[in-house]
Specification:
Helix content is 47%, strand content 5%. It is mostly helical.
Length: 146
């Protein structure tokens, strides 16, 4: 089963439910409604219990910083878990709350993260519409001597 592989590859099967990942998670500052439900610990526990994790709205709130992995005593890689679960959800056309690259269609960020960034930068409209590879390509096109 795909979720089993994602859990194994990320190390989430070794989670001891200590909560260290929650203590360092930047989502606590980002979202007023932050709770265990959208925390790394919550996502791990839901995935382990197979609670319709691919349809969970919290899956799209993570910024992918991997701070949880840096403090995890069992080496759980939260970013890899979230990335794997998101990809599985997208393959099944479930809750695709993403901002896609306007050039190549790759995922740039998730809509909750994009919304947060836009709110923090009030008065400054930035477009998170290009992935890093396409951003580099546009830069090269603009700055190539020719």
């Amino acid at each position: 089963m795909l979720i089993n592989k994602i859990l194994e590859d990320s190390g989430a099967v070794f989670c001891v439910d200590c909560g260290k990942c929650v203590a360092v998670c930047p989502m606590a500052e980002m979202y007023q409604d932050f709770s265990v439900d959208i925390s790394p610990r919550g996502i791990i526990q839901k995935a382990l219990r197979r609670e319709n994790i691919l349809e969970d709205a919290g899956l799209w709130c993570c910024v992918g910083c991997n701070a949880g992995a840096q403090v995890c005593p069992e080496g759980v890689n939260c970013r890899e878990l979230i990335k794997g679960l998101r990809n599985a959800a997208l393959k099944q056309n479930l809750n695709g709350k993403i901002q896609s690259c306007s050039r190549c269609g790759a995922m740039v960020t998730t809509l909750p993260v994009s919304d947060y960034i836009q709110k923090k930068l009030t008065g400054k409209k930035i477009m998170l519409n290009l992935c890093p590879a396409c951003r580099q390509q546009v830069y090269m096109e603009r700055n190539t001597l020719g």
